[in-house]
Design goal:
140 residues; mainly alpha; 5 helices
Length: 140
């Protein structure tokens, strides 16, 4: 508001923006993680048929150091494989958690959330117009 007072609608708009920013941050971090994992897993030729390197090195009667290295390689490849395929599940997990919490009786008032969207949209437009006018007055 131009006079420095914030209404409940302004506070609600800011809360919605903060929630959106938090979700955007989570998505950005997850995208970075998936990017890293996909770059690392591209060296695994077949994700559906990953050999057990420890067993293969034991079968070839390699040294204990080679067997240990093969075991560690198995763990790394399994971890990459799990992270690669679990990477798309985070948003569904968030939806499940919030759906469970918001379906409780203490949040029954949120069933009418759709009713606040038109005034919230108008409030956002007024805020943007006021900010634009303020910038124009500063000759920016």
């Amino acid at each position: 508001m131009p006079d420095g007072l914030t209404t409940y609608l302004d506070q609600f708009r800011m809360l919605i923006a903060q929630i959106g920013n938090a979700l955007g941050y989570v998505r950005m971090i997850r995208s970075g993680g998936l990017h890293f994992v996909s770059n690392a897993i591209r060296f695994v030729p077949d994700l559906e048929d990953i050999p057990n390197f420890e067993e293969l090195s034991k079968k070839e009667e390699m040294s204990s150091e080679s067997i240990e290295a093969a075991r560690i390689l198995d763990e790394v490849v399994a971890n990459l494989n799990q992270n690669f395929f679990d990477g798309t599940q985070y948003f569904q997990l968030l939806v499940q958690v919030f759906a469970k919490q918001l379906s409780e009786k203490k949040h029954v008032h949120l069933k009418a959330f759709y009713a606040i969207l038109p005034p919230l949209t108008l409030n956002y437009l007024e805020y943007i117009m006021a900010a634009k006018d303020k910038l124009n007055k500063m000759n920016v």
